[in-house]
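Example record for the data management plan.
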Amino acid sequence: MCKKILLISLFLFSFSNILVSQEGKLDKGKKSLKDQKSTGNKGKRTSKTSSSTHNDPPIENPLARILWFAFAYTAYGVAIETPWEFNGSMHDTEISNYPYKEHRYGNFIYTDSTNYNITRFDVTNNFVRENGNLYGNNLGVNFRFLKRFALELEHLYLSEKVNNTTDNFSMYSALLKYYRIRTQRFDAWFGLGVMHVGNDVDKTGFGLGFGAELFVAKPISIDFSHKWTSINQQEVHKTKLLLKYHIKNYHISSGYEHFKIGVSKIKAFSIGVGARF
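Corresponding structural encoding:
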């Protein structure tokens, strides 16, 4: 009797594992992105008070105006530039031809009239792999202009093989980036734009991103970035941490990339190449 119960338990356990294994990470992630959660209008009331019927002119508060201007001035300084930076080296920094053209600088240079670009294209391509069944490619183009701005376009493609069937995932992103910190050894940016999930999801969301690159010593740098959007109230994240080895206007990179697709999380090894023009 005990043997029969044990055999039945093993059969049910194996059967449940087969059912679970039939659904891969990409499939689960895309299904969660397609599941629309309705917030509804519960508890929403509309009421009109006697004060709303009057068209009394608003009372101007001098203190509120002072606080508003102080907040706007502080926000501008934090996000764009402070008065102390306006006359500093970072205000007039230029885009370098490529990192480590000389030992002392990376993506930006302070005072070298012969070694900077008005614009620059950075092209990167990284192969990502979590395991033998889940892998993909991350292609990006970063167009730098006006000393401190860039337009970045990226395409992420992932493929997963589950039980002799292949599932795919594609995501496109376009961010307008502002390089808030532009020193010769370290730069940092934030960006706004859109991120689109393709395949059978076919949804677009508002995108946010931030990142930084530290130039440790020639020819090594550490590059980090994180991008985020929301699709049907489910989060989609793309994070990378790469070690780069620079060879003139080219580089080789290797490191870690993390993707969150709805309910699915993917941790991948990354290796790739890049070039500047």
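Summary line stored alongside the record: The first helix runs from residue 2 to 21.
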